[in-house]
Amino acid sequence: MTSTHAMSPPAPDTLQANGPRHSPWQLHATRIAAIRTEAPGVTTYTLTFGGHRAQRRFRFAAGQFNMLYLPGIGEAAISISSDPESLSGIAHTVHTVGNVTRALARLEVGDELLLRGPFGVPWPLADLRDRDLVLVAGGLGLASLLSAIAFCMTHRGDYGRITVLSGAKTPADLLATHDHHRWRDHGIDVHGIVTNPDPRWQGPVGLVSMLLDGLAIDPDDTSLLCCGPEPMMIAVAEQATARGIAREQVFVSIERLMGCASGLCGLCQVGPFFVCRDGPVFSYDRIARWLAVPHL
Ligand SMILES: Cc1cc2nc3c(=O)[nH]c(=O)nc-3n(C[C@H](O)[C@H](O)[C@H](O)COP(=O)(O)OP(=O)(O)OC[C@H]3O[C@@H](n4cnc5c(N)ncnc54)[C@H](O)[C@@H]3O)c2cc1C
Ligand code: FES
User: Which residue among 97, 145, 270 has the greatest number of ligand 1 atoms within 8 angstroms of its CB, and so is best to mutate?
Assistant: First the structure.
């Protein structure tokens, strides 16, 4: 399979675009090594593989996702939220919403968790070297961008200015705030914003798009990566293009119900694309017209 990004495909070191090289049905057995509460209803599970060999074989690129599988219950598509170059396990940051994620919330450290993956087109970080990056997250959307931030920290010298804009409903819902000082130590600018502040909140109040409004950017040299609720991504992408960033340089990660996760069942179809195979990361110029179609 080949990359369907308008830009050149990711370098081999950033791994497979458009689906796994292994069988999509292959199950990996992992153990839960750590569980951390991130926000109300949001938990990060760190998973380790049985031995270094299995760990080394499981390589992914920032922006890809796994199908977490609980036998007898079902599967859920979940972004990999950890550093793609770390060999000490992989992480998933999960919002408890339904059957699979509720069952996941009942698991404990040491329990087995099966998964298939990795799947999907990653953030095109290898193509964005030397550019300024603006990463915009709405709520849990930060989960998909966390692995990109980790990658950028390791390869900090390859990029220009990097800014993370993170929005949530309440201060308690802002994810990964404990990591902000580490990101800043790596020269990454971080700004948070909430719509429902509490009395201790001293930051800005409003939608994350407000932060983008106030940000000084050089549109010719800037690429924007965005993940969050679809109306938020459309608003941010439109604002970015109005500020002069080319539509080809705006990337969004979209969600659809997943079945096979490998381009076979059609459940995730959006216009001419299968989100599991052609996405979840799309450049805005390719996906914009399909995002605007209600109920698609
Ligand atoms: C590529 C991709 C990456 C994803 N990454 C993540 C991730 O990193 N973390 C994560 O928590 N989720 C992520 N999701 C969303 C996740 O796959 C769904 O939330 C999934 O439906 C959860 O499975 P479930 O069986 O628990 O819920 P289901 O039983 O499928 O859903 C139960 C109920 O929850 C509602 N629901 C479904 N999804 C959401 C949602 N996102 N928010 C609020 N309500 C919802 C449904 O409408 C339904 O009413 C991702 C989805 C895709 C396609
Ligand atoms: S989930 Fe089956 S084609 Fe995408």
Answer: 97
**Protein residue with least CA distance to atom 52, ligand 1:** 255
Rounded to whole angstroms, the Cα distance separating 223 from 154 reads 19
Neighbours of 78 (CB within 10 A): 24
- Under a CB-based contact definition with an 8 Å cutoff, are residues 120 and 64 in contact? yes
Please state, in angstroms and rounded to a whole number, the distance separating the CA atoms of residues 164 and 228: 13
Beta carbon of 78 within 6 Å of any ligand 1 atom: yes
Neighbour count for residue 143 (Cβ, 10 Å): 26
Bridge-based pairing of strands 90-95 and 112-119 is unpaired
Measure 68 CA to ligand 2 centroid, in angstroms. 15
pLDDT digits (tens, 9 = 90+) for 132-154: 999 999 999 999 999 999 999 99
Please name each of the domains of the chain with its CATH number: 12-119 (2.40.30.10), 125-291 (3.40.50.80)
pTM of the complete model = 0.91
Whether ligand 1 lies within 6 angstroms of the CB of 43 is answered as no
